[in-house]
DNA sequence: CTAGGGTTAG
């Protein structure tokens, strides 16, 4: 037993580094001995309490101080408050702060800790009362106190107040500056963040990693890769520590700006990578449409022994959504259920995955299981119903959402209006558009106008839609004109349609689908020279666009089909299946719509080209490889053309199959010769 | 004994 030795000089023990790492148990024995031997002085008790706090026994620390003369020792209390903070319980930190005995006079450290706790809790009013006490106690010009006050405001979007504090600070250090930079970034003002950094440099303050991370994020948000790269160079030249966080923000900066190869190189050069670094890289691929690569990385991450965090899982789910990989999506969902609490972010990503993989039922089931729903989760589920052609369900959900007191935002209405439009619920669409503007005071954006115009025009109310355009403050965009034009074409309002087509051409669209619509309209009015002119534009933009690709998942394996790709082992069988279907379709009245072939070819060759459209190949493959009655889910990267849309209706009848096609815009549910979406051009 | 930092959903 060596404790008595300590008793010779407990003072030395408590100030030595041994105490810093002493266990709470050792400290307790020492404590007891101090009391028994009546040698517990004020200073000793205070140091002991601080040592308890460092060792993590906060209850012991507090009870050591309470009811002794040492309870006036602010240093000991600070140690306790700091320990609560480190442990991630700001509420406990504040509780201790508020219950300080009157004899313990808070100092700069105490106020700083309390303000930081308020910032973490988002307790602005509590923070302001701490501020008042700090200022009264004479810490008005204290850099630590002011910087944490600044952070409180900046972190919660009150940049105006943050600037006020900042402006009257007599002294600023790099923490002050970096707080301002990060504040502007999270307030969505990246240019002001960069401006702050410039001011800092003019003031002669050198940036450290933390400031630079803020600047990198600002470059990411401002889409300024050039400056981002120069910051990167600056870091390297000045030999700044490339820690995980710095490197990760660089990876993110390059990836979000489309420089995936550079992002990869930075990622590859990292000495230590943690879950967040992997997440940044995976999301970079997923958001740049390289979903297969994102999923490969996701597997690599697990293989290298890093447990995916929620960021990586969300990105993996996003990648599964993009390519419609239901089996993998399900397994990621299963992984989450086993290891995580299902929060709203993960829930939203999973619901979106099920939705985009064609499984409305799974999305609904998951939604019903989540009881604590936030705005984005509701929006995702409403969008899901809409995408699957369930306008009425979307409306019911929307009303349910309102009943819970959740306030809809612009995205909610975009999803709702789009759902109503796809289901042809005209009266409801008009009603809720008006309600959005008048009751919820949301200024309609382009997407809202597109939905409403589409809804009106499709339903034959072309004039009403046209009036809506004139009532708009801004000039109509291509998307809005297109919605109106397709209504004109479907409802044979050719005269109005022609002037709209002219308007669209003036805006120089390069979208082949848009041009096809315009060309179809000119064909309907027999303006053949204009048809030729538009078809030339289509040829130019058609050669630039990516090839159409469709995929189908059969028993957990994905099969992708491109028009040009001859390499599929079952290619011949597939092509002859399509030909057989084609024959039957024609007997039932199908007429190939060769206007959807954009190359100058003989009519016969054009018809053949139509047979090679990727969605037809994928469907034929699906029919060959699944049993009768199995539902087929096709994921297509571009929009389904009018010809395929007609053809799949017939195929669903002939093969007696439910066929779901997800194109770049939405879902088409084909069954018994009809599609859930209304007229299609 | 004290303040500031990265990824992820509609």
From TrEMBL:
Ranges of residues in domain DYW: 589-681
Keyword Glycoprotein found: no
Pfam families named among the record's database cross-references: DYW_deaminase, E_motif, PPR, PPR_2
PPR repeats: 142-172, 173-207, 243-273, 274-308, 374-408
Top-level taxon: Eukaryota
BP term (GO), one: RNA modification
Gene3D superfamilies: Tetratricopeptide repeat domain
The name this protein goes by in its record: DYW domain-containing protein
Protein species of origin: Oryza sativa subsp. indica
